[in-house]
Amino acid sequence: MTIDYATLAAVLFGLFIAGTLFLVVRANRESKKSADFYNAGGSLSGFQNGLAISADYMSAASFLGIAGLISLFGFDGFLYSIGFLVAWLLALLLIAEPLRNTGRYTMGDVVSFRMSQKPVRTAAAASTLVVSIFYLLAQMVGAGALVALLLGLTDPLAKNWIIAGVGALMILYVVVGGMRGSSYVQIVQAFLLISGASLLTIMVFASFSFDINALLQKASEMSGAGMAFLEPGGRFGPDIAGDPIATLIGKIDLISLALALVLGTAGLPHILIRFYTVPSSKIARKSVNWAIGNIGAFYLMTIALGFGAAALVPREILHRGFNADGNPLDMSGNVAAPQLAQTLGGGEGSLGGAVMLAFIGAIAFAVILATVAGLTLASSTSFAHDLYG
How far apart are CA 237 and CA 303, in angstroms? Predict the structure, then answer.
């Protein structure tokens, strides 16, 4: 039996958008002053804020990007999972409590605490806007690739309209719901993402009778690289015979990547402003504790998803085909997780495959919406409070 998974995906997209719009409209009724827009009035509980932080942190770059990198490059893709997780430990141990104690709405509040207000706030706001814009670009690329896969779109212009539509929807979320509404959307997204990733992980392990060695062996065989697929050097910092300069540059790139993952991720503006949404530094620490459990479990699951896609999804499908020169059309693997879901459900053309693809695709789309909402809110808050204010 064949089924149109594009229709299923469109229905699930519509249900999620309708549900989240209801949440932000309801949140708007609870917002009475500017603090409600900037930081939800500092009224979120540790559990609520922990889920919202998890949603911001477990972005489409993680769910789609890391799983794709692992499926194509094996061990080296796994470095991203570890880097993001270590970065969160920095936030827990060094950032959460001081940030909550010294600021109200933005990073500018913290760095201007003991310095000249105008130049420091200007620099902080400019940094927030630049970081948010570049991070937004990655999320939007994921949105375009995902929706194009689910709806069967090949026209680049159609992808551009998808990106514009996602951006317009996020502006609506932020304008209507502010931080409170965005938090509600992110809480729902965190629940959906963890549920979907858990389901896929269990199905992957069940396909190999919960034998991890069998999973890794099959992944290495399907990769075409053999056991080298499970060893470092497949993408980052490889040893290049006869070219010590290129080898050295590769090692430096690897160190740069590690520093960017650990230090850069710990300083993402849409994550940091979440510490202002709770009433005290004690609750801020609790929210980080709630988040680290969800984040740690999720990044462990991305390893299973990546190697599962490598083992179960043919290379040609992961690369979205090859051109006339035999080069892959897609080296990012951004849709490896939805492709894995389709394979686990029974493959292309089957009812189970269509349902799984639409379900996981809708969850990934929800991830993108929630993350973009957080980034948009961080940018608008910084612009309004630090620059315009």
Answer: 20
d(CA 265, CA 66): 14
CB 145 within 8 A of CB 337: no
CA distance 302 to 216: 14
Q: Are 147 and 365 in contact (CB under 8 A)?
A: yes
Question: What pTM did the predictor assign?
Answer: 0.82
Q: How many whole angstroms separate alpha carbon 162 and alpha carbon 241?
A: 44
SS3 of residue 191 by DSSP: helix
Task: Point out the least confidently predicted range of 84-98, 103-117, 166-180.
Answer: 103-117
Task: Say if CB 171 and CB 91 are below 8 A apart.
Answer: no
- Helix, strand, coil proportions of the chain in percent (round to 5)? 80, 0, 20
Between the CA of residue 263 and those of 53, 76, 228, 304, what are the distances in Å? 17, 19, 29, 25
DSSP conformation class of 227: G
Residue pair 30/180 in contact by the 8 Å Cβ criterion:
yes
3-state secondary structure of 328: strand
d(CA 288, CA 281): 11
Q: Which two tokens stand for residue 73?
A: 């490059």
Compute the residue count for the chain.
389
Concatenate the DSSP letters of all residues of 40-81 into one string.
GGG---HHHHHHHHHHHHS-HIIIIIIHHHHHHHTHHHHHHH
* Amino acid, single-letter form, for residue 266: A
How does pLDDT run across 262-285, given as a tens digit for each residue?
A: 887 777 888 878 878 888 878 877
Contacts of 375 (CB under 8 A, 6+ apart): 132, 135, 136, 139, 269, 270
Identify the bridge partners of residue 328 per DSSP, sorted by sequence position. 322
DSSP letter for each residue of 280-291: SHHHHHHHHHHH
